[in-house]
Amino acid sequence: CIVSHSQFQAFNLELKRLEKDVGQLIVEEIWAKLIRKLKKIRFDLCAAPLPFNDSSVFSIADLNEIKKYFETIKIAYPQYAPYVAKLLTIMGVLMGSSENPLLEGIISAISEKESTEVAILLKEARWIPQTEIVSRSYPKLHGIDVISQYQLKGSKFYKCIYVVGPRYWFPSYLLTSPRAKEIISVKYNWLRDYVQNIPTFVS
To answer: What is the mean pLDDT of the chain?
Structure first.
């Protein structure tokens, strides 16, 4: 299940461009902190099926922290200031958006499935509570389980598990173990997936 979002893709491209052009400067503290923060935001937005404007994944504090780095960069590295300025502009657009491409992709995919035997698998358990809260707003997701990889060790069996993010984020045994008849990856179109896109079925 592939989803897309033009502004988030632009954020990813600008971050890659900044990291490449900064080059060896990335070892300096200001750049290390900025790039680390931007990468964390990108990862969280790829790993949590939450709206862009959900403050638990992307907050005003995050934006203000990056603005603080930007003020230093404008003085110390003015040639790179336009890169950071563009990223801040995109981040402002994302923070004003209630779109939730990952969860909307899941909803679209399960429109003809029984949600009572479906689970959403997250890379990090810290996003389970907020994902459960957000999913309550969607009738099609009532009865769905939101789980982490560790909860798959139990005896419960699903018709389908939607894995949020590329499958190489997860241990290979999770994608071949008999915990679901079908496993579907839900990810952004610019994220690579190193696992062959073949549904897992249990005989």
So the answer is: 86
Angstrom CA distances, 32 to 15, 16, 48, 82, stand at 13, 14, 24, 18
Report d(CA 71, CA 54) in Å as an integer: 26
Cβ contacts of residue 139 below 8 Å, gap of 6+? Answer: none
* Surface-to-core class of residue 21, CB atoms within 10 Å of its CB (0-12 exposed, 13-18 middle, 19+ buried): exposed
Phi, psi values for residue 182, rounded to 5°: -140, 140
Task: Write the pLDDT tens digit of every residue in 123-179.
Answer: 999 999 999 999 999 888 888 999 988 887 767 888 888 999 998 888 877 766 667
190 secondary structure, DSSP code = T
Q: How far from 24 is each of 21, 33, 39, 130, 138, CA to CA, in Å? A: 9, 14, 17, 38, 46
Q: What is the pLDDT of residue 86?
A: 94
Residue closest to 25 by CA, chosen among 58, 72, 91 = 72
- Greatest mean pLDDT among 21-35, 39-53, 129-143, 160-174: 39-53
Look at residue 171 and give its three-state secondary structure. coil
